Amino acid sequence: MNSFFVLNTPEQVSVNAQFAGYVIFYKKSKDAAVAEIQLSLLSKLIENGLKLSTENFLFIDTSSQHARISSLKKSLEVKKCFFFGVQEKEIGINIDIPLYQLVTVGETEFLKADAPEMLEKEKLLKNQLWKQLQISFKLI
After folding, report:
1. 80-84 and 22-26: which strand pairing?
2. pTM here?
3. What pLDDT does 65 receive?
4. Predicted local distance difference test score (pLDDT) of residue 15
5. Quick one: which of 36, 64, 83, 95 has the fewest CB in 10 Å?
């Protein structure tokens, strides 16, 4: 897996030149085996499914960084925002986004799903997520 930027400090956000405006919020597990499952699933979805690079994405671990979407949008163009096991209020969004349903607010698309380790076990949930990702990235 390629390396990618994980925001975990309160400093100014900086991303590499390949950042495409896609942000993933998730809670990295403290258990190394579960953390590996999380990152493996996310990288497979991105690289194998979407045929993109993980470097196109900004990964934010909400268990170590209390990021707000409004702060991110001040310094970055956020086109697509994905929540994996993260609630909207945790990043400062005041609307409810239904699970596995793509929602557009202003210029940003939002998609909320269960945590990656749960998706890994549940093929039906993974399929629901994949259908919405295909719509978001215009693969169908």
Report:
1. parallel
2. 0.88
3. 85
4. 81
5. 95
Distance, CA of 73 to CA of 58 (rounded, Å) = 12
Torsion of CA 127, 91, 136, 75, to 10 degrees: -150
* Distance (Å, whole) CA 73 – CA 21: 10
Closest CA to 6 of 45, 62, 48: 62
Cα–Cα nearest to 40, from 84, 86, 90: 84
Domains detected in the chain = 6-136 (3.40.470.10)
Phi, psi of 4, rounded to the nearest 5 degrees: -145, 160
For the stretch 10-21, pLDDT in tens is: 445 668 889 999
| Cross-strand pairs, 6 | 59
30-46 pLDDT tens trace: 999 999 999 999 999 99
> Tokens for 115?
């945590």
The secondary structure of residue 28, as a DSSP letter, is -
pLDDT average, residue stretch 71-77: 90
H helix intervals, the chain: 32-43, 69-75, 116-121, 123-136
